[in-house]
Amino acid sequence: MPAGVGPAGSPRWVFAGAGQRRWAITALALALLAAVIAVNAARAHPERRVRTVAAPAPPAAATVDASGCPSFTTCRVRSQATDLAAAFARAFPGGQVLAARTTFDARGDRSYRTSLIGLIEGDSTASVSAQCVRGAPGSTPRLDRSNTASVDLSGNSVIDFRQLSMLVPGRPGCGVTLLLRTRGPDVRFEDAAMALARDPAIQLSP
Question: What is the distance between the alpha carbons of residues 177 and 105, in angstroms, rounded to a whole number?
């Protein structure tokens, strides 16, 4: 397949036969196909330059264990919560304290968490907890209501239990949470429960 010079001085290829010509055309087609595939691959997977910027992390907040004891200290737990029990008695004079506990610093007398479960009447209960840890994240006020319902034999919806939950922030890192659970549609304990959650006497100090 010697090369010659065409009329305009351009290269001119001379083929010995038809078979050699077909081979040359096939090779050219394969080369063009490879070029097309390479271009499409480059378009589908363009080169990217990624620059990673390390943002400063926020300061770590104080963490507590299941008893409310902060990770930076050692705590003890006692089965009483005097201020909380007194506040519960003011809110529900006919109620009964079922359980109470206080988590406090073993090296001093600083309380980190007080909690109480009280029976109000029948199946109605109130659970309240006060937590305060210096350096813990702040909180926002919250008031939620929900209920659990079923359908009776007549197809009517019947409220089995009603719940009210509250979060009352105190000083930074401090707050009170309350859960009121009452049988049926009765809402007569809600005002007393909200007054209990907002009682400043049960807020702990940092």
Answer: 21
Q: CA 68 to CA 75: how far, in whole Å?
A: 9
Q: Is the Cα torsion angle 102, 105, 106, 107 positive or negative in sign?
A: negative
Domain boundaries, position 114: 75-202
Number of domains in the chain: 1
Does this model's pTM top 0.70?
no
pLDDT digits (tens, 9 = 90+) for 37-57: 555 544 544 444 434 333 343
- d(C-alpha 23, C-alpha 18), whole Å: 9
Strands (E) in the chain, as ranges, are 3-5, 11-13, 75-78, 96-105, 111-121, 124-132, 142-151, 157-169, 174-183
